[in-house]
Specification:
alpha+beta; Sporulation membrane protein YtrI C-terminal domain-containing protein; coiled coil; YtrI_C
Length: 167
Amino acid sequence: MRVPPYHQKPGWQRFFAGIVIGALLSWFIFLFQFGVLQENQIRKITQQEDEIKDLKKSKDILIEDMQKLNDENKNKLKIQDFKVDFANKKNFDLSSLNLHHMKTAVIEDLNSLIGQDIQTVSQNKQLLFRTIENSVYELDDKKYRLKIHTVFFDTTLEITLNIEQVK
């Protein structure tokens, strides 16, 4: 068996030359596009690395500042949350929704105390008592007033209230 002599026919020579030239052109185009994409990826990675370094520096600065503030305020506890409970809620025929509305209204009145020192709030507890006891809460066309039963000062300010109906 014999291989046909394609090297003598000019049509086949152009075909094979076109294949070789096309392969070389496509290889160079691929290398160019791959290089451009890699360059963009490298640029993006370096920008992200710089941003990460800046963020780590700012995080470290914020942590140092927070530690300094914690050291300064180590002996000062602050109020973080409220717990409101009603001692005589069974004496009144109030739904749990109405009790919830009353509780949220009391908490809204006390929200200005969040973040204050427990010592300062305990010294000014008469102001706290007046704030709660002088407020009138209206539910279902009835007016209610709250009297403070017990108060416990901790990071969570626990208040037990008595409900009284205003006539």
